[in-house]
Amino acid sequence: MKTGLIGNGAIARYVRTALEDRGHSVSAILLRPERVAQNPGLHVGSVAALPDDLDLMIDCAGHGALIEHGPAILLRGMDLITVSLGALADPVVYDMLEQAAGQGGARLHLASGAIGALDCLRAARVGRLDRVTYVGRKPPKGWKGSAAEKVLDLEALHSGAQIHFEGSAREAALRYPKNANVAAAVALAGAGFDATQVQLIADADVSENIHEIEAIGEFGSFSFQIRGRSLPDNPCSSALAAMSVISKLEQTHQLITI
Protein backbone atom coordinates (compact mmCIF):
# COMPACT_ATOMS: atom_id res chain seq x y z
CA MET A 1 0.00 0.00 0.00
CA LYS A 2 1.01 3.60 -0.57
CA THR A 3 0.25 5.62 2.52
CA GLY A 4 0.71 9.16 3.72
CA LEU A 5 1.08 10.48 7.26
CA ILE A 6 0.01 13.67 8.94
CA GLY A 7 2.63 14.68 11.49
CA ASN A 8 6.14 13.69 12.45
CA GLY A 9 5.84 13.19 16.22
CA ALA A 10 6.31 10.10 18.37
CA ILE A 11 3.18 8.29 17.13
CA ALA A 12 3.88 9.16 13.48
CA ARG A 13 7.47 7.89 13.73
CA TYR A 14 6.29 4.63 15.28
CA VAL A 15 3.63 4.17 12.61
CA ARG A 16 6.05 4.91 9.78
CA THR A 17 8.55 2.34 11.04
CA ALA A 18 5.82 -0.28 11.54
CA LEU A 19 4.41 0.33 8.05
CA GLU A 20 7.79 0.02 6.39
CA ASP A 21 8.58 -3.11 8.39
CA ARG A 22 5.40 -4.61 6.91
CA GLY A 23 6.35 -3.75 3.35
CA HIS A 24 4.14 -0.69 2.86
CA SER A 25 5.57 2.51 1.44
CA VAL A 26 5.16 5.93 3.05
CA SER A 27 4.90 8.23 0.04
CA ALA A 28 4.18 11.57 1.74
CA ILE A 29 4.30 13.24 5.13
CA LEU A 30 2.05 16.26 5.58
CA LEU A 31 3.53 18.94 7.85
CA ARG A 32 2.94 22.62 8.55
CA PRO A 33 4.30 24.62 5.59
CA GLU A 34 7.00 26.29 7.68
CA ARG A 35 8.41 22.88 8.61
CA VAL A 36 8.59 21.48 5.09
CA ALA A 37 11.74 23.43 4.21
CA GLN A 38 13.44 21.94 7.25
CA ASN A 39 12.42 18.41 6.22
CA PRO A 40 13.01 17.89 2.48
CA GLY A 41 12.10 14.70 0.68
CA LEU A 42 8.66 13.19 1.24
CA HIS A 43 7.34 16.18 3.15
CA VAL A 44 4.57 18.39 1.76
CA GLY A 45 2.83 21.41 3.23
CA SER A 46 -0.73 21.04 1.93
CA VAL A 47 -3.35 18.46 1.03
CA ALA A 48 -3.25 19.70 -2.56
CA ALA A 49 0.42 18.67 -2.76
CA LEU A 50 -0.26 15.05 -1.79
CA PRO A 51 0.36 12.45 -4.54
CA ASP A 52 -2.72 11.27 -6.41
CA ASP A 53 -1.88 7.58 -6.05
CA LEU A 54 -2.09 7.37 -2.25
CA ASP A 55 -4.26 4.54 -0.96
CA LEU A 56 -4.68 6.01 2.49
CA MET A 57 -3.78 8.91 4.78
CA ILE A 58 -3.09 8.43 8.50
CA ASP A 59 -3.52 11.29 10.99
CA CYS A 60 -1.01 11.11 13.84
CA ALA A 61 -0.85 14.83 14.59
CA GLY A 62 -3.77 15.61 16.91
CA HIS A 63 -7.08 17.43 16.87
CA GLY A 64 -5.88 20.56 15.11
CA ALA A 65 -4.41 18.62 12.21
CA LEU A 66 -7.55 16.53 11.76
CA ILE A 67 -9.72 19.66 11.75
CA GLU A 68 -7.41 21.48 9.34
CA HIS A 69 -6.65 18.70 6.88
CA GLY A 70 -9.29 16.00 7.39
CA PRO A 71 -12.10 17.50 5.29
CA ALA A 72 -9.81 18.27 2.33
CA ILE A 73 -8.34 14.74 2.40
CA LEU A 74 -11.78 13.14 2.46
CA LEU A 75 -13.03 15.44 -0.30
CA ARG A 76 -10.16 14.18 -2.47
CA GLY A 77 -11.61 10.70 -2.07
CA MET A 78 -8.80 9.45 0.17
CA ASP A 79 -9.64 7.28 3.15
CA LEU A 80 -8.28 8.58 6.44
CA ILE A 81 -7.37 6.81 9.69
CA THR A 82 -7.21 9.01 12.77
CA VAL A 83 -6.34 8.62 16.44
CA SER A 84 -7.76 12.12 17.15
CA LEU A 85 -11.15 10.83 18.22
CA GLY A 86 -11.66 13.61 20.75
CA ALA A 87 -12.04 16.15 17.94
CA LEU A 88 -15.39 14.54 17.12
CA ALA A 89 -16.77 15.85 20.40
CA ASP A 90 -17.28 19.15 18.61
CA PRO A 91 -20.54 18.77 16.63
CA VAL A 92 -19.35 21.24 14.00
CA VAL A 93 -16.20 19.21 13.35
CA TYR A 94 -18.17 15.95 13.32
CA ASP A 95 -20.61 17.30 10.73
CA MET A 96 -17.82 18.81 8.63
CA LEU A 97 -15.95 15.51 8.41
CA GLU A 98 -19.12 13.52 7.77
CA GLN A 99 -20.15 15.79 4.90
CA ALA A 100 -16.66 15.75 3.38
CA ALA A 101 -16.55 11.95 3.48
CA GLY A 102 -19.94 11.75 1.81
CA GLN A 103 -19.03 14.20 -0.93
CA GLY A 104 -15.65 12.63 -1.57
CA GLY A 105 -16.84 9.03 -1.40
CA ALA A 106 -14.21 8.34 1.26
CA ARG A 107 -14.25 6.87 4.75
CA LEU A 108 -12.93 8.15 8.06
CA HIS A 109 -11.65 5.23 10.15
CA LEU A 110 -11.31 5.67 13.91
CA ALA A 111 -8.35 3.93 15.53
CA SER A 112 -9.46 2.82 18.99
CA GLY A 113 -6.34 4.19 20.64
CA ALA A 114 -5.21 2.99 24.02
CA ILE A 115 -8.28 1.08 25.19
CA GLY A 116 -9.91 -2.30 24.66
CA ALA A 117 -13.39 -3.72 25.42
CA LEU A 118 -14.97 -1.47 22.80
CA ASP A 119 -16.50 -4.38 20.87
CA CYS A 120 -18.29 -5.40 24.05
CA LEU A 121 -19.50 -1.85 24.58
CA ARG A 122 -20.77 -1.58 20.99
CA ALA A 123 -22.74 -4.79 21.47
CA ALA A 124 -24.15 -3.59 24.79
CA ARG A 125 -25.52 -0.37 23.29
CA VAL A 126 -27.87 -2.43 21.10
CA GLY A 127 -29.83 -2.88 24.30
CA ARG A 128 -30.16 -0.29 27.07
CA LEU A 129 -27.03 1.25 28.56
CA ASP A 130 -27.72 2.69 32.00
CA ARG A 131 -24.25 3.91 32.90
CA VAL A 132 -20.82 4.07 31.27
CA THR A 133 -17.83 5.53 33.09
CA TYR A 134 -14.23 5.96 32.09
CA VAL A 135 -11.36 6.66 34.51
CA GLY A 136 -7.98 7.73 33.11
CA ARG A 137 -5.01 7.62 35.47
CA LYS A 138 -1.49 8.73 34.51
CA PRO A 139 1.68 9.72 36.33
CA PRO A 140 1.99 13.51 36.71
CA LYS A 141 4.43 13.85 33.79
CA GLY A 142 1.80 12.28 31.52
CA TRP A 143 -0.46 15.31 32.09
CA LYS A 144 2.16 17.97 31.36
CA GLY A 145 1.03 20.45 28.75
CA SER A 146 -2.66 19.74 29.48
CA ALA A 147 -5.43 21.52 31.35
CA ALA A 148 -4.40 19.55 34.44
CA GLU A 149 -1.65 22.12 34.97
CA LYS A 150 -4.31 24.73 35.67
CA VAL A 151 -5.76 22.60 38.46
CA LEU A 152 -2.74 20.85 40.01
CA ASP A 153 0.92 21.57 40.67
CA LEU A 154 2.17 18.50 38.80
CA GLU A 155 5.80 19.14 39.70
CA ALA A 156 4.95 19.06 43.41
CA LEU A 157 2.91 15.87 43.24
CA HIS A 158 5.38 13.25 44.49
CA SER A 159 2.98 10.78 46.12
CA GLY A 160 -0.70 9.94 46.07
CA ALA A 161 -3.36 10.67 43.47
CA GLN A 162 -5.44 13.75 42.73
CA ILE A 163 -8.49 14.13 40.49
CA HIS A 164 -8.21 17.09 38.13
CA PHE A 165 -11.31 16.52 35.99
CA GLU A 166 -14.81 15.10 36.43
CA GLY A 167 -17.49 15.53 33.82
CA SER A 168 -18.80 14.24 30.51
CA ALA A 169 -16.70 12.69 27.77
CA ARG A 170 -17.53 15.67 25.57
CA GLU A 171 -16.13 18.11 28.13
CA ALA A 172 -13.04 15.93 28.64
CA ALA A 173 -12.33 15.58 24.93
CA LEU A 174 -12.64 19.31 24.27
CA ARG A 175 -10.67 20.36 27.35
CA TYR A 176 -7.91 17.76 26.97
CA PRO A 177 -7.35 17.46 23.21
CA LYS A 178 -4.03 15.60 23.64
CA ASN A 179 -5.06 13.38 26.56
CA ALA A 180 -8.71 12.36 26.27
CA ASN A 181 -8.93 10.50 22.98
CA VAL A 182 -9.54 7.32 24.97
CA ALA A 183 -12.55 8.91 26.66
CA ALA A 184 -13.84 9.82 23.20
CA ALA A 185 -13.33 6.25 21.95
CA VAL A 186 -15.39 4.94 24.87
CA ALA A 187 -18.12 7.49 24.22
CA LEU A 188 -18.33 6.74 20.50
CA ALA A 189 -18.51 3.00 21.14
CA GLY A 190 -21.14 3.22 23.84
CA ALA A 191 -23.46 5.79 25.37
CA GLY A 192 -22.28 8.88 23.51
CA PHE A 193 -20.28 11.94 24.48
CA ASP A 194 -22.81 13.47 26.87
CA ALA A 195 -23.92 10.31 28.69
CA THR A 196 -20.41 8.92 29.30
CA GLN A 197 -18.93 10.10 32.59
CA VAL A 198 -15.19 10.68 32.86
CA GLN A 199 -12.71 11.09 35.70
CA LEU A 200 -9.08 12.04 35.04
CA ILE A 201 -6.43 11.50 37.71
CA ALA A 202 -2.77 12.40 38.20
CA ASP A 203 -1.22 9.60 40.27
CA ALA A 204 2.38 9.85 41.45
CA ASP A 205 2.33 6.22 42.61
CA VAL A 206 1.91 4.71 39.12
CA SER A 207 4.37 4.49 36.25
CA GLU A 208 1.91 3.44 33.55
CA ASN A 209 -1.19 4.92 31.95
CA ILE A 210 -4.18 3.13 33.48
CA HIS A 211 -7.54 3.12 31.71
CA GLU A 212 -10.72 1.72 33.27
CA ILE A 213 -14.18 1.28 31.78
CA GLU A 214 -17.29 0.27 33.68
CA ALA A 215 -20.66 -0.28 32.03
CA ILE A 216 -24.07 -1.29 33.35
CA GLY A 217 -27.13 -1.96 31.24
CA GLU A 218 -29.67 -4.42 29.96
CA PHE A 219 -26.85 -6.82 29.05
CA GLY A 220 -25.57 -6.94 32.65
CA SER A 221 -22.32 -5.26 33.66
CA PHE A 222 -18.61 -5.34 32.95
CA SER A 223 -15.42 -3.65 34.07
CA PHE A 224 -12.18 -3.47 32.14
CA GLN A 225 -8.71 -2.17 32.97
CA ILE A 226 -5.60 -1.80 30.87
CA ARG A 227 -2.19 -0.62 32.04
CA GLY A 228 -0.45 0.86 29.03
CA ARG A 229 3.07 2.12 28.50
CA SER A 230 3.98 5.38 26.81
CA LEU A 231 6.13 5.66 23.73
CA PRO A 232 9.78 6.20 24.69
CA ASP A 233 9.88 9.49 22.76
CA ASN A 234 6.87 11.05 24.48
CA PRO A 235 5.35 10.28 27.92
CA CYS A 236 2.01 11.71 26.73
CA SER A 237 1.71 9.30 23.78
CA SER A 238 0.40 5.79 24.30
CA ALA A 239 2.29 2.93 22.66
CA LEU A 240 -0.99 1.05 22.20
CA ALA A 241 -2.54 4.07 20.48
CA ALA A 242 0.24 3.95 17.89
CA MET A 243 -0.18 0.19 17.52
CA SER A 244 -3.93 0.61 17.05
CA VAL A 245 -3.30 2.61 13.87
CA ILE A 246 -1.57 -0.35 12.26
CA SER A 247 -4.27 -2.70 13.51
CA LYS A 248 -7.01 -0.49 12.03
CA LEU A 249 -5.21 -0.34 8.68
CA GLU A 250 -4.87 -4.13 8.54
CA GLN A 251 -8.52 -4.65 9.52
CA THR A 252 -10.05 -2.14 7.12
CA HIS A 253 -7.90 -3.13 4.15
CA GLN A 254 -8.08 -6.88 4.81
CA LEU A 255 -4.33 -7.25 5.13
CA ILE A 256 -4.65 -9.94 7.78
CA THR A 257 -6.69 -13.10 8.14
CA ILE A 258 -8.45 -13.74 11.44
Number of strands: 13
Query: Can you say what the CATH homologous superfamily of the largest domain is?
Result: Dihydrodipicolinate Reductase, domain 2
Helix content: 25-40%
Q: Report the CATH topology name of the largest domain.
A: Dihydrodipicolinate Reductase, domain 2
Task: Label the overall shape.
Answer: globular
Structural class: alpha/beta
For the record, the CATH architecture of the largest domain stands as 2-Layer Sandwich
Q: Total domains, how many?
A: 2
Please tell me how large the radius of gyration is: 18 Å
The mean pLDDT is 91
Largest sheet: 6 strands, parallel
Order of helices and strands: EHEHEEHEHEHEEHHEEEEEH
Distance between the termini: 20 Å
Uncertain runs? none
Characterise the protein shown here.
- With 258 residues, this protein is of the alpha/beta class.
- The protein folds into 2 domains: 2-110, NAD(P)-binding Rossmann-like Domain (Rossmann fold), CATH 3.40.50.720; 118-235, Dihydrodipicolinate Reductase, domain 2, CATH 3.30.360.
- It is 31% helix and 29% strand.
- The chain is built from 8 helices and 13 strands.
- It has helices at 10-21, 33-36, 63-75, 91-104, 118-124, 169-175, 181-189, 239-252, and strands at residues 2-6, 25-30, 43-44, 56-59, 79-82, 108-110, 129-138, 161-168, 196-203, 209-217, 220-228, 230-231, 234-238.
- Strands 3-2-1-4-5-6 form a 6-stranded parallel beta sheet, sandwiched between helices. A 5-stranded mixed beta sheet has the order 8-9-7-10-11. It has a two-stranded antiparallel sheet with strand order 12-13.
- The chain is globular, with a radius of gyration of 18 Å.
- The two termini are 20 Å apart.
- The model has no long low-confidence stretch (mean pLDDT 91).
